[in-house]
Batch of 3 targets.
Target 1
Amino acid sequence: MRIYLLFGAVLGLSAVAPMFFQPVIDGALSAPPATQAGEPEKAVPVASVKSVSVSSSGRNVRIQADDSGHYSADLKLNGRRVEGMIDTGATVVAINVSTARKIGISVASLDFRNAVQTANGPAKAAMARISSFEIGRIKLTDVDAVVLEDRALGQTLVGMSALSRLSRFKAENNVLLLEQ
């Protein structure tokens, strides 16, 4: 039971943690590395998520921070388009019941026995697995996730169950770089 309470506290705090730490992170980042003399910058395709730009190149994705310092992007979960926010403080990818249904997860078969504490208060959660997870040209399979009641989670959070499977991720100058 302690593990579930701890998990709930971490999940709840992960939704608000970026707001508190973003100014510290932004101030600590250095200027972008200079390109070699005469070397043109590489062009990468850019797709827009509301006012946020996402660039993909090979197995790299660059996400521009929004005005509040969050990194949001279009994802494909089980082939369905979903908007999500990158949250390095979240242990696992978190989706709500509506998103679970949208991406083909059978909500009726989930066991919502785990009590968790979120930023929106106490909620019930169930473990699930996302078969196909894509962000730009990065593709992952069998990503662990937690499903929460709709009232407990307003948007999809991309947590460490996905991010830890990348070769690296790095935030610098309001750009988040993801590499596979």
Target 2
Amino acid sequence: MDLLKNQLTSEQLGRLALHPPDEIPCTDGRSTIPRPLPCENNYRLLFAENPSPMWILDEESLGFLEVNHAASLLYGYTREEFLGMRLPDLFPAGQPDQAGTMLEVIKRHELPAKSAGTWRQRTKSGLPVDIQITSTEMLLERKPAALVVIHDVSELKRVESELHETRTQLEQRVRERTAEIEKSNANLVREMSNRQRLEQKILEVSESEQRKLGQDLHDDLGQQLTGMALLASVLATDLKNQSNPLAGEAQDLVRYLGEASLSARNLARGLYPITLDRGGFLVALDELATRISKMSGVNCSFKCEDGFKLKDAVAIQFYRIIQEGVNNAIKHGKAKNILIECKIVRNLPWVMVKNDGEPYREPKRSAKGMGLSLMRHRARTVGAHLIIRKGAEGGCEMICSLLRERPERSRKSKRP
């Protein structure tokens, strides 16, 4: 087609598209072009038999000068009906300006062929049809005309509409699902917060009961045992002065009561060391090491780096973790030597209980003991990380370290 357009003028192309004559006069009026060559017949076939719908539009009257068979099939009008119609007749009622707008686009003629956008027209049966057009200018009997190729994009628009609707529905479902997830997350965070508060309250109640029990053992049972030991001592002295053969047994009773009184005091300190109430975390650990050494025969030592300190609420939980770790080393690890060490690592408190007993083994899920779970729970409540592992030189190491400093909660005064 381009080769032929280089040989013929726009007027000759227009006349050839309508009815090829035996001769086509040139624009100078002095020469003619002989009967159309085979390529010229092919050019006409490109219009009449082209599978793409085509019009030739009069740019002045907006009437159709010619249409091909594909255009009749698309719109449902016969060729004769088309030739009696104007461009506005193809647009839906109530859109009189659409034809004029389309014509303005067609008449720009910036390029030999150009896309003129997307338009909605109607067929003879009244059904909508979405089209895109490509146009090129021509002259027909010295009048401006346009050859317009129609591209039916109705199916494409339908698919686009369905995709848009699907995307809209999907976005709506995503928003709804996101809202549900955010609500669930908020509920989960609230439940976790409530659980943490409850766990903290349980630990506080547990510590309070242990403190009360320790105080009762120290102040009540301990005092009674001490009083009984004094009475037994007086009795033993009297029996000895009387040369009573029961004096030896009375002296044994004094010794037994003294040992019972010492055990009661040690038990009371284990339940709640008095030094913890005075902010003496390090003193309490030193006493723990001394008491363990005396009571169990295990060499338990304690050392601490200068500047080490813990807030009271954290100190209580750390003490319980260390206490459980030491007891486990003796009971399960069969340790002979235990080291309790406190130091500062990366500006945060760090505590280790190291022993030379049996290497640590992760307990089975079926194990009934709660000691390890309780230790980890205590660490979690104060924002600490607990590690139990095999020591570099054998034995077992338990390390508890704060992940970050936690602000100390202010204590509310109790109502009278």
Target 3
Amino acid sequence: MAKGRVYVIGAFPPPTTGASTITEAVAREIKCRFPATVCNTASNRRGFRYHFERLSRSAAAAFRVLMAPEGSVIYLPAQAGWGRLYDLLFIGCSVIRRLRLVMHHHARSYLEVRSRVTALMYMLGRRTDTVHVYLCEGMQSNAERTYGRTPSLAISNRHFIQAPSGQLPTRKGDAPLRLGFISNLTAEKGLDTALELASRVSKTRAGGVVLAVAGPVNDTSVVPLLRDPLVSYCGPVHAERKEKFFNSIDYLLFPTRYRHEAEPLVVIEAVSRGVPVLATEIGCIPELLRKAKYCHAYPEESWVDLASALLNDGLDHLELKQSVGSPLWLDEMSALGSLQEFFRVLAPGDATS
């Protein structure tokens, strides 16, 4: 008889998002450890073609779950919005087959505010062997408060992001202060707030200020902001161009107000490269930055005031950049306890046992 497998069902790049990037990274780790089948449910199309492709791919994935060998495990990155309806399909198939289900949550909105669809997901999940995976203890507590206690664990995305090697380049101390903003560019990600901060600091800083912006434009309302004289727009950046972007900035600004924001990868990428981060107190960001030197998470309503006060206090940004990615922070990234538990619950059974 066939052995159980791990079925990875989720959206893979493209399009590239934080959740799809982590799904791809987790799938890579799973395939190194267990027999695995990957079912990509994403679509990079638009309009009717988008919905048709997602529906057809999801139907094919559900069929694979129904035909899975005994002892198989379903790894399902949970979706937000209408995507939860697809999740219900996969949860239902797991219940029918009585397979272990590992749901990896990447959004915070539906965990903080109760919704009927998510409540149904949790109710169905209790009918099979389901383990919920959250990105931090705060998400875990919110979920338990909203939907009741279930088997779960909290593991940061930073465990799946490889820290770069090598030294940061030395930059001149009299160069303009380079603030960075990188994201899928939408109004909710806070580019307007980052530009407000850059504008305020530029009025008091003799050396000048540049706001380097990177990422694809997903919202036309941000286009006028990219024409501001303080902005240097780099477009979408990946691989070597992303490394060049991080190496060129003195601070990463991330004043997000995105309602699904949980643990943004750009914050992890910046800190692991020794770039200080100034972000808003949303989701897992405060927990993520708690032990990262010179990084701060401020309330949304006072973010510009507090961040401008810090940037204007004359700290040597070259010294900061060399010390922010401290060994303590990076050592925590390599901790094995949470990872071992994560892969333990993903381990498929042997139908011959």
